[in-house]
# Entry
Amino acid sequence: MNKAKNSELAPRADLRGAVDVVEKNTDTSWAMFQALQGQQERGFEKTRPTGLAIPAQQPAVAEAVTVDDVLVEARRNNRVCPLPAIWQRLYAYLPNAGPHLSKVPATHAEWQQVPALQKRARLREHIEWAASQGVLRQVYEALRKLPENRWHHIGE
# Structure
């Protein structure tokens, strides 16, 4: 069966350059609709830790640490950011931090209001700032030494 014979292209006026495909075979259309609807109702599987052992990638002393190395460490096991008190100490360590650099959510209310992805983005900003100030290796070592229970994770 040729799909071109079963479909008709019709321009839509409300979207620039968009094209609607009109399916003439209603059984196929209905089956596709039901499959999509079923997928939507099932939702997506929850993120879960991998069962594979992931060796900690430690760059050699002579090797330079990159922002990507630090971000990989910071996101391991669905981590978002260090817990507030630890993150505050890390922020205080950053040289030349000023009003141009996002602050750590300080109060309990502020911590609850800032979404996990925004916290992660702030931590990334702090990591990038550490790189620009020449203290990336120290930040990396500090984050690498943090035990897992000192991290805020996605879903917590």
